[in-house]
Amino acid sequence: MRAGFVLGELGTGLRRNLSMAVSVILVTMISMYLLGLGLLAQRQVDTMKDYWYDRVQVSIFLCVEGSQYAACSGKATTPTQREQIKAQLEQMKPPVKEIFYESQADAFKRFKEQFKNSPLAEQATERAFADSFRVSLTDAGKYDVIVSSFSGAPGVGRVQDQKQLLDRFFAFMNAVSWGAIALSALMVLCAVLLMATTIRQTAFSRRRETGIMRLVGASNATIQLPFVLETLVSALVGASLAMGLLWATVSYGIGGYLSKALMDTAFIGMTDVFAVAPWVVGGVAIVAVLTSWFTLRRYLRV
Amino acid sequence: MILFDAVTKTYPKATRPALSEVSLEVERGEFVFIVGSSGSGKSTLLRLAIREERATSGAVLVAGRELRTLPDRRVPMLRREIGTVFQDFRLLPNKSVFQNVAFALQVIGKSRALIRQTVPETLRVVGLEGKEKRLPHQLSGGEQQRVAIARAIVNKPTILLADEPTGNLDPATSRAIVELLDRINRSGTTVVVATHDHEMVNEFRRRVIELDAGKLVRDEADGDYGKTTSAIPVVRIDEGDSDAEDGTPDAGSAGGER
Ligand SMILES: Nc1ncnc2c1ncn2[C@@H]1O[C@H](COP(=O)(O)OP(=O)(O)OP(=O)(O)O)[C@@H](O)[C@H]1O
Ligand SMILES: [Mg+2]
């Protein structure tokens, strides 16, 4: 069949069936937007993991006079105890990579610097802080070695692992992204059913046309092509709109707002949208073609 | 050209066969009328010839192909060699006369140049020059049937099948349509016409095949419509008689359009 004729018929078909085409476009758009958000959230988690797991530290808080930590029983860590802890850490390389000492005063300064825009900075007192060893690890997974050797040791108030905090946050992000993906799967199901219904309806309203095509000896491919193309075009328009929305979300939501509000972390960017887009659009194309093919086999006698 | 050998067709769930043990042969270039009362199996016979239905038993040969074993993917090629015309014209209402005829060529992939040349030619053959731009509803019944015939012959088929082509037309128009079919036949196309129109059959004196309850009961060259045909009384003096009969819902052609 000639391309000009096919395109002409495609245009007429879409125009005659505009409301159906629009509904397929919208449902595809929403489902693919949700799917895209879910996938991007996953990539955000991965990005943050990469960023944070390199920076994750285990903090060994020491005791000060009148410490809030129960393990200290109100007594400050003696210089000998401190040296002992330091020596023990030095022996544990690797997994210990680097050891920093931060005094109570330094910790207080750093806090005030970090929260200089917040009322917290004015309320906090130096007494709430403690001297600490901050230990970075070659492998973030080895933190429990540190925890088990130092918690309860003389002069140690508390061992805190940042990774634990982060993991809780990542687990939450993961759950949210899987929620979005599950919801999008449901929407994809809706899209498939809507495409199938649209094709059935269209096949019925064009039965005279397809009847004539069969009669004059048009091939099955020729008879089915307009239906497949109309579905495919609607679905692809929907998927493209979804990618546009996703682009806007990342560009304005993350690039324009979040990354300025939270300077201290890594965010996904446009490259991630471009990495996700071909899979989403390709997936939509496959779903549209398979759906039309199965529906036509059932509802369009050739 | 067309050969039926002991063909029986029983529709699913039917109690009696629509065609039983029908054998006939139509040679290249022949003109044949198929007559018989309503429900005698005329449309079924034509539907078997275009592989719209498959025979339950027996062999159907059309244009050199055995249709009972012809694979589905070969059916379009068969149908390109057969033109088909129906009582209800089956034109596309929002396409013009030209577009309706061109459609038959477009969907089998013919080039625009060929279409631009062949369609006007064919419209001239059926006597519709000057009406290319009209829509079907702007034409009379006879003109609409001419469009349908043009569409059926535009690809130069070797066989033309017509199922009650004059069923919706008055006698004068019917006559013109059959004359057109006759002219097409004389240019070499094999023509088979299923009809209730006894005046036409009697006047044209061509080969007549008569079916009765699915059986072939008569096959004669130079035949007439016959007297045994109808279960429904035929009133010969009134020219509208065949319309009264054909106006009833036709299970045959409705079924063909699914
Ligand atoms: N699709 C079908 N399914 C079941 N039975 C059918 C079908 N089509 C036709 N029949 C039956 O087969 C028989 C022959 O029908 P057919 O349409 O061939 O008759 P016909 O000679 O064309 O009649 P008419 O002159 O009214 O058009 C009838 O009894 C009819 O009820
Ligand atoms: Mg009939």
From TrEMBL, chain A:
Residues 182-301 form the ABC3 transporter permease C-terminal domain. The chain crosses the membrane at residues 21-41, 175-199, 232-254, 274-296. Residues 56-159 form the FtsX extracellular domain. One of its GO terms (cellular component) is plasma membrane. It is a multi-pass membrane protein. It comes from the Bacteria. Its main location: membrane. Forms a membrane-associated complex with FtsE. This is Cell division protein FtsX.
TrEMBL record, chain B:
InterPro entries: AAA+_ATPase, ABC_transporter-like_ATP-bd, ABC_transporter-like_CS, ABC_transpr_LolD-like, Cell_div_FtsE, P-loop_NTPase. GO terms for biological process: cell division. Keywords: ATP-binding, Cell cycle, Cell division, Cell membrane, Membrane, Nucleotide-binding. Pfam families: ABC_tran. Residues 224-258 are annotated as: Disordered. It is a peripheral membrane protein. SMART domains: AAA. The gene is ftsE. GO terms for molecular function: ATP binding; ATP hydrolysis activity; transmembrane transporter activity. Transmembrane segments: none annotated. Belongs to the ABC transporter superfamily. It comes from the Bacteria. Residues 2-238 form the ABC transporter domain. Homodimer. Forms a membrane-associated complex with FtsX. Part of the ABC transporter FtsEX involved in cellular division. Has ATPase activity. This is Cell division ATP-binding protein FtsE. GO terms for cellular component: plasma membrane.
